User: What shape does this take?
Amino acid sequence: MDEKKQNKNTRAQGYIKDEIVFTSKPKPVASCNYFEFNDMKKGQVRKAHFTLRNIGGPFKNFDIKTAGPEKTDKKSSFLKILELKPVDKTQDGKLPVKVFFEAAAPDWSKRYSANILITLDDAIEEVTVNLDTQTKPVNDFARILSLKDIKKITALINKTEKLTGTEIAVVTTDSLEGKTIENFATGLFNEWGIGKEDKNNGLLFLIDVSTSSFRIEVGLGIEEIITAEFINNTSAKYVVPNFRNNKFGNGVYLALTDIFAEIYRDTKKIKNVK
Assistant: This one.
């Protein structure tokens, strides 16, 4: 009687003490279930790791893989599992283990999401990895800018951000997808999140060759500096004359130079007041 009672009590805890026979199912648990990599550059790689434990019973099959957000078997192209290392070096091949992985940014101005799926028999644990990339300074989808133009404009954009904090993106396109250039520019500006989130200091220079039009979209944080009047004057002076002669790169560069100078003057003015 006493022996049966003892077995009953220990089974309630999930095992028989002497025989080590588990009754509970395996339960994989990750030390962190969510990773977010923000504002990465195209081609940049970030690495991280988490610890994987089993807080349930024994298991026969162990599997770990990457999958898309729909939890299918389709592997993610940006997410890669690098290595599994035992937490205790004397327990090689057993849990707990440290799972090392890397996330590589495939392209500019995109957001990616994938999962690391861990399976112990039928029990599944999921770790979500999100990644977003910076807006590329110059996006010449219409192929109207020379490589020299792109390098020169990119250098100016980087200089503007470094000295004033203002983020600028130049986009050329051959289709507005049935929208007005105003709506297309506003939608692209918001989708890409141009500008610092807390300052809203972005600027988008959009050129559409299908309608022979352009637009300079400005964030709320700098619209008192780069006013509609300023944009009209700069456009008339630099953009329109150059665009008429198909000198798109020169028109963009001169207009952005004027914009940089105006923002920089305002930045220095604020610093001098302080």
